[in-house]
Specification:
The complex is a heterodimer. Chain A is mainly alpha-helical. Chain A contains 7 helices and 5 strands, in the order ααββααβααββα. Chain A is 49% helix and 7% strand. The longest helix of chain A is centred in the N-terminal third of the chain and has 40 residues, at 2-41. Chain B has one domain (2-556). Chain B is globular and about 75 Å long. The chains are: A mainly alpha, B mainly alpha.
Chain lengths: 204, 557
């Protein structure tokens, strides 16, 4: 019995030492090696793909969506609007998350109906022309992208408010439209953060 | 057209896995059979006081698994409770005892259920020293146990199964470590962050403010996928642009999830000296994967459900860069591998899509299953299939040269009962406690009714099978659920491991017979079909009643 107990204690002591050794290798050494590689080889990506305006100020990350609403939460008409977000009060990058509401949820049904009507009115288009991504919240709440269809129905409104010709806005949209990765993976999309920054910095 | 993109993505994944199958499978076989140690490994064995050539009986092997996982559990718990005293903790307080227990159990058990919001709960020290480390070593434990079972089949008249300490160190340093490093670099190139910045306050394009998080994400993301763990750095997991920035990184993540589980059959074939054995396992995994992928994709493309009909598509909880196809591809991989990661919110899938995901877990995680767990679970199911078919057809119950006697049948039979007993039994106990039931129906469920039932069913199956994904509308961060689900996770992890090692021990003690005409011929497509049939018909009737109350009721509404 005492032999057995001694054996078990020895196993536990081995286990503790093994866990400590592996923690040093995999929990400290490995992340620091990746950190060093990131700093040397991919400094921009490792730092969060930050984007700057013409003055050199950081205005966000090209990967993280932003809110383009006023303080009361009303959409600003001079900007392309992103998808609905339930991360915090909307695009709160410290509270990523989704609604997690199911297909038969009354709350989700009501929210989608309301968004659909509001977006149709805001952009002066028919309710049937509002695409699905415009009325559904993303999984992260930080989706920086919208579909090409949602960008298209916003072109006239943005052009009117900014006194630009729709052709100019339309060509900016094409410039910030990305096709499927490698031509066939994922969906075509328009990066709203980059597009709106480009609009603000557009001078004739 | 959507199906065209679905098929091309699936073919891409299949081709790359096909290219890796032989070299990686054989490499892993070499790792676990070679007698030569690296110098670094010899230092480690000396440091932890282990003789790398000493063989262990199945009981000693199991004791080592339990001691190692127990040590991990205690150290991880201590880190979480001592968080305020650790550097790089971003000022977060200690985690509550029940949450710390749940999280430690969950990561040590390769489940990575997260009932907390990482952005507000865990600092960089706990992320790196706790989450990242357990993501490695819990995966390594799964691989080690699978290898022990394979050795049991390969060995003749032996009392030992190899040495756990050698297996876990080699799985960590020779397989998971190097692959994770390569994966982390690829993910970095795609935009996954890796820094220790803390948060950055910025003024947005429209003049508002935004707080952008930092963190050592790429290093954790790589092993989160490769070890079929799923514990995300951020709450939104692989939907978060800093974890999974673009569509091609999504394919990389799916490949990382599937890589080791799909290559282990080759390791098995090589180690027992018969590649046909590896192929029947691989064929079963691949067939189930394809059926599940097609089912979930069809459900999501249909956009069935009142809210989605109004929206025009089932895009709630899905990212624009992924769309439906990349979301369902990921969902198939994550629910088929004990992955538990998510790039889209499973609770917002169509009712039938959600049900297929629940079934994919309820089949015992064999499409292709977690690292190691997929292989050993399927091998146990092969034992049961051979036994049952042998009874029906009057063939000798022998497989891979090993006789299936009473002991082997009992161990395998108990093993397939673990999941339903833990998941359904746990749910029954929980819902029969009046105060807990009121709390769950009133608060934890996002809505009462069928969707709430789906959330509950998903949570218990996910914990019992060590998946870790969720219908995340379910708020499980209560002392009761944290503790109870934590216990279910540990039982769901270590009871099957004990049974598998016992089975390995009894196989190793046998001689290995050469095939005879009296045996069932297993190396045929008919056997794979039988095996799939058995997988489905063990799980479907068992879980049909709860599926009827949850997703089926919701889908038929």
């Amino acid at each position: 019995m005492s032999v057995h107990l001694g054996g078990s204690l020895r196993t536990v002591w081995t286990a503790v030492r093994a866990m400590v050794v592996l923690t040093v290798i995999l929990g400290i050494l490995y992340p620091l090696v990746v950190l060093a590689i990131g700093r040397v080889a991919f400094p921009s990506q490792a730092g969060g793909s930050l984007i700057r305006n013409a003055n050199g100020q950081v205005v966000g990350s090209s990967l993280i969506g932003q809110s383009f609403s006023d303080a009361d939460g009303n959409p600003l008409p001079q900007y392309f609007q992103p998808r609905p977000s339930v991360a915090g009060d909307g695009y709160d990058a410290t509270s990523s998350g989704a609604s997690n509401l199911g297909p038969e949820s009354n709350a989700l049904f009501a929210a989608i109906e309301e968004r659909k009507a509001a977006i149709a009115e805001f952009n002066g288009v028919a309710v049937a022309d509002v695409p699905p991504d415009a009325v559904t919240a993303s999984g992260s709440g930080l989706d920086p992208d919208i579909s090409v269809a949602y960008a298209t129905i916003q072109i006239d409104r943005v052009a009117r408010v900014r006194n630009l010709s729709p052709d100019v806005v339309s060509s900016l949209v094409s410039q910030y439209t990305r096709g499927r990765d490698l031509g066939y993976i994922g969906e075509p999309r328009v990066n709203v953060v980059e597009l709106n920054l480009a609009l603000d910095e557009y001078h004739g | 057209m959507a199906w065209f993109w679905a098929v091309t993505s699936l073919v891409t994944v299949a081709l790359i896995l096909g290219l890796a199958y032989r070299p990686l499978g054989d490499y892993m076989a070499w790792v676990f059979t070679t007698e030569s140690d690296w110098r670094a490994e010899r230092w480690i064995y000396r440091l932890i006081g282990v003789d790398p050539r000493a063989g262990q009986s199945w009981k000693a092997y199991l004791r080592a698994v339990l001691a190692f996982s127990g040590a991990g559990l205690v150290l991880f718990y201590a880190l979480e409770r001592l968080q305020p005293y650790l550097p790089f903790s971003l000022g977060f307080p200690a985690m509550s005892p029940d949450l710390a227990f749940n999280t430690a159990a969950s990561f040590v058990g390769n489940t990575n259920w997260q009932s907390y919001v990482p952005e507000h709960t865990v600092g960089y020290a706990v992320q790196m020293l706790g989450l990242t480390v357990q993501s490695f070593v819990s995966g390594a434990v799964g691989i080690a146990v699978a290898i022990a079972l394979v050795r049991g089949i390969a060995y003749r008249n032996r009392g030992t199964l190899g040495n756990f300490w050698v297996d876990v160190v080699r799985a960590s340093l020779r397989i998971l470590g190097p692959l994770a490093l390569i994966a982390a670099i690829v993910l970095l190139a795609g935009g996954v962050i890796q820094n220790l910045h803390g948060v950055t306050q910025i003024t947005t394009v429209a003049g508002g403010t935004q707080t952008i998080p930092g963190g050592p994400v790429a290093s954790q993301e790589a092993i989160k996928m490769l070890g079929t763990n799923g514990g995300g750095f951020f709450n939104a997991n692989s939907a978060h642009p800093f974890e999974n920035p673009t569509a091609w990184t999504n394919v990389v993540q799916v490949l990382l999830l599937l890589l080791i589980p799909f290559c282990l059959p080759r390791t098995f074939g090589t180690m027992i000296g018969d590649q046909r054995a590896g192929f029947i396992i691989l064929a079963t995994m691949a067939a189930l994967f394809c059926v599940v992928f097609v089912s979930i994709t069809a459900a999501e493309l249909s956009g069935h459900g009142t809210a989605f009909q109004v929206a025009g598509a089932a895009m709630e909880g899905k990212e624009q860069r992924f769309g439906i196809i990349q979301s369902t591809l990921f969902a198939t991989a994550t629910t088929g591998t004990t992955g538990g990661a998510a790039n889209s919110m499973h609770g917002s899938y169509t009712a039938i899509g959600g049900m297929v995901m629940i079934l994919n877990m309820a089949m015992g995680e064999v499409s292709p299953g977690g690292v190691g767990t997929g292989l050993y679970t399927l091998l146990v199911l092969v034992v049961i299939t051979v036994f049952l078919t042998g009874q029906l057809l009057g063939r000798a119950p022998v497989v891979f040269g090993k006789r299936i006697g009473v002991r082997e049948v009992i161990l395998s039979g108990v093993m397939i009962l673990v999941l339903p007993v833990l998941a359904l039994g746990g749910m029954a106990i929980t819902m029969s406690l009046p105060s807990i039931r009121d709390q769950i129906v009133g608060q934890a469920m996002s809505e009462p009714g069928p969707h709430g039932v789906s959330e509950l069913v998903y949570a218990f199956i996910s914990a019992a099978i060590n998946n870790g994904s969720a219908f995340a509308g379910f708020s499980a961060n209560t002392p009761y659920l944290n503790t109870f689900l934590g216990i279910i996770i540990l039982l769901g992890r270590f009871v099957p491991i004990a049974l598998v090692l016992a089975l390995a021990g009894s196989f190793a003690a046998q001689d290995r017979t050469t095939a005879s005409a009296a045996e069932l011929p297993v190396y045929r497509p008919q056997f794979v079909i039988w095996l799939i049939f058995l997988v489905v018909f063990i799980s479907l009737p068992t879980f049909f009643p709860v599926l009827l109350c949850g997703p089926l009721a919701e889908g038929l509404a």
